[in-house]
Amino acid sequence: MSKVTFGYIVGGTDKHYENLLRSLRSLERIKQDHEILILDADGRLSDSDGQENVRIIHYPVQKGKGDEWFKPHIWKMRYHLYEFLETDYCIYMDTDTVIVNDRVDDLIEYSEDKFLICAHWWLNDVKDYFDKVRVSAPAIKPYLDNNNAYQRYIASGVFLFKKGVHDGIFKTFSEMFDAIFADGQCPDGITDELLLALSLYKEGNYKFANGSMNHSSNHNQMPLKLEDGNFYGKNPDDAEFEKVFLFHNDIKEFYTSDITAGLEPNVIKELEKVCYIKE
Question: What mean pLDDT comes out for the span 67-90?
Fold first, then answer.
């Protein structure tokens, strides 16, 4: 059996399914055997057509009442992947990601079997999030204290966990989520990243990875360079550049955002290539 599963969740508009297909294609860059696990909220995906390493599970969720971008009831699905995991490790990836370099073994070794995730590139801690984003204070107040307000804020679009080791993190997350969203409403600013940051503080046993594990692909946000045909990146406060594990960008927004702003033509061309944009 493979030792690692790439886990996805999907639901909502067409673009999320289109992004998923691109991300799945990028797994061709992973050389070792691996499994693929997809939780599909809308049941739009067919079976795996004989691909024994692919499992697609219809996972209906309460839709909630958030705006188009604010879908916590779909986001929370990622914290249930562990219930279906059959391999030793799982790397959760948002659908709008593409693998750039196969660093699976390096990341597993670096994790030391801790929950591995990247710090957020533009937010420092939970308090910083409250200072910069409108948040429904009454909804989250029962879970805040003077200590976890300084918990480093995280980027939940990619994380690595080990089967049976980090269940407590996911259960703590679910307890908070179910209490806050029980009525189907979507309190302002209560994102899965905020709840995950608080869950990590409570449960511990986590570790921060270099930002190259989950790079936005935007050099104006996170330092990025192309050397000898390979992309290297990091978070702004990381000491060293490392080979990019994956890029995090939406097909529909590649040219409408400032991803390519200020880049040399050869760098743009290579970025388009690794992100399958021209194809």
Answer: 90
